[in-house]
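pasting for ref
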Amino acid sequence: MEQTSKHPCYSREAHHKYARMHLPVAPQCNIGCNYCNRKYDCTNESRPGVTSQVITPILAQQKFIVVKEKFPNLSVVGIAGPGDALANWESTREAIERIKASNPEMIFCLSTNGLMLPHYAPEIVKLGIKHVTVTMNTVNPETGAKIYQFVHYQGKKYTGIEGAKILLQNQLTGIQYLAGQGVLVKVNIVMIKGINDQEISEVVKKVKQLGAFMSNIMPLIPVEGTVFAKLPSTNMKELNQMRDLCQIDLQQMRHCKQCRADAIGLLSDDRSREFDAVSPNLI
């Protein structure tokens, strides 16, 4: 509870007080989401999958030192892409280990689609990561086939229902394992009108059974160049109605800003652009 009270994503009160830093050390992704376009060097966009640059674990450690000096209230270091943290596990682990060695009090968290959770969940626990976010948009493989173009798993490419089934099973297994080991699991759900919006309450009920700590229902951001580019974004009224419905079963995050993969600062005040010049000078 002490760590959660200092995590701006897990505590509504904390997001006014404590800063977070996302390390963009994970460029590769192992699934293809129909709403995702991972543009690098896109400084005018603020959404998941976007970063001005991908950095190495060594550079991440150096940048952390600079940012920590400027933000005494920095409490959380997270890895949220721009791809998937577990699809780049070696870089993700090294970055966390380096920063943890110099600042063992720092809170660490990571975000993942969950495909590789059954493989790396024990290492996540051993590494002392107490907060993990899993994006899980459906418990129905047929719906998953509409959301995901492909799933790359153990050297093979799967599509359609087959790929969605593999992803779903690994998400369920991973969430249950982490929760059973005392990790606070937040489940992100992208609300996509006409695709999964009628199934979200079912997702929330299921992850509650698995031990999830909270869920975060987010509106679809229609992005140019994606399959879902022409779909309507979820309006706030619809979003809050769904959050109110799901609050009956599980705590809801209502202050998410759908951050960039290199975000720095308070949730409501991303100051990552101030540090763009830091990294090249450190290489």
